[in-house]
């Protein structure tokens, strides 16, 4: 995970342990992020409550906000989000693929019109399926 100015900016797909200097300016948010990620791993549906910095355009931030509103174990389609935002489903898909905060901004909860689609995180579609199963996403044939 990476933080800047007290806000979480990026989640990386790696198993490397997090080591922070005690005086790191963003140490508190990174410790909170690690605690919340461990709670997620343990099945806690509470979600993430962290200050976030989402780089990119206002559109990228709007898509990330829409994704963040999808509840634990729930899904929406690219088309549903696109309709809400007044853009194309493809534009939402591109923004999902550029999400810098996977799991925290749960783009794995966004599906294609006909079900599962790709996933830009490590492991691709298998990771998306594993995350949805972990959350008990109802009604999915996964």
CA radius of gyration is 15 Å
Low-confidence runs of at least 5 consecutive residues: none
CATH topology descriptor of the largest domain: Arc Repressor Mutant, subunit A
Strand order of the largest sheet: 1-2
Beta-strand content bin? 5-15%
Structural class: mainly alpha
Which architecture name of the largest domain does CATH use? Orthogonal Bundle
Q: Give the biggest beta sheet.
A: 2 strands, antiparallel
Number of structurally distinct domains: 2
In percent, how helical is the residue content? 25-40%
Number of strands: 4
At the first level of CATH, the class of the largest domain is Mainly Alpha
H/E element sequence: EEHHEHHEH
How would you characterize this protein structure?
Strands 1-2 form a two-stranded antiparallel sheet. The chain folds into two domains: 2-41, no CATH class; 58-135, Winged helix-like DNA-binding domain superfamily/Winged helix DNA-binding domain (Arc Repressor Mutant, subunit A). Strand 1 (2-4) and strand 2 form a beta hairpin. It is built from five helices and four strands, in the order E-E-H-H-E-H-H-E-H. The longest helix is centred in the N-terminal third of the chain and has 15 residues, at 27-41. The protein is 38% helix and 8% strand. The protein is mainly alpha-helical.
């Amino acid at each position: 995970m990476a933080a800047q100015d007290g806000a979480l900016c990026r989640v990386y797909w790696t198993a490397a342990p997090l080591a922070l200097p005690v005086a790191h300016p963003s140490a508190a948010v990174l410790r909170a992020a690690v605690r919340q990620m461990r709670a997620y791993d343990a099945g806690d549906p509470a979600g993430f409550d962290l200050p976030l910095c989402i780089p990119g355009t206002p559109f990228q931030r709007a898509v990330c906000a829409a994704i963040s509103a999808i509840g634990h174990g729930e899904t929406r389609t690219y088309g549903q989000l696109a309709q809400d935002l007044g853009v194309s489903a493809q534009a939402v898909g591109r923004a999902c693929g550029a999400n810098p905060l996977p799991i925290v901004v749960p783009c794995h909860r966004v599906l294609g019109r006909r079900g599962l689609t790709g996933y830009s995180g490590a492991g691709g579609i298998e990771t998306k399926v594993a995350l949805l199963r972990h959350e008990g996403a109802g009604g999915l044939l996964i």
